[in-house]
Amino acid sequence: MLGQTAIQVAKRLGAGRVVGAGRDRARLATLPGIGADATVALTDDAEATAAALAETAAEVDLVVDYLWGRPAGDAIMALLRASADRGRALNWIQIGSMAGPTIELPSVALRSANFR
Q1: What pLDDT is stored for residue 106 in this prediction?
Q2: Closest CA to 35 of 53, 55, 15
């Protein structure tokens, strides 16, 4: 529910492109109807999920994260690797930890990109 609200708020505040990501495919299917320009299914296949994120959301500049845990660590690395401009800021707002309280993040993520 909060993710859906975040999509609507982002659109109303003028976001050029909003990508919704989540594990529930039925809920993902509803997101274009409330403003999402694209969606990405977070699956147990880390490589496929990383590829989908890289293709769909590589140039985002703000992420609102309700999951944290392994999905966040994997997503951060996928987005940073796929970004055409590593000098462009990727702002990560961590709100919840439904997928776990910690992440594993290689130090290169902090040294090689403008990640905040």
Answers
A1: 93
A2: 15
Asked whether 49 and 73 are in contact (CB, 8 A), the reply is no
Instruction: List the one residue out of 26, 36, 52 whose CA is nearest residue 4.
Output: 36
Alpha-carbon distances of 92 from 54, 65, 66, 75, rounded to whole Å: 16, 7, 11, 11
**DSSP notation for the chain:** -HHHHHHHHHHHTT-S--EEEES-HHHHHHGGGGT-SEEEE--S-HHHHHHHHHHHHTT-SEEEES-BHHHHHHHHHHHHHH-S-TTS-BEEEE---TTBS-----THHHHSS-B-
Q: Block means of pLDDT (10 residues each) for the chain, length 116 residues?
A: 90 94 94 96 93 93 93 93 90 93 92 90
Q: What is the pLDDT of residue 27?
A: 95
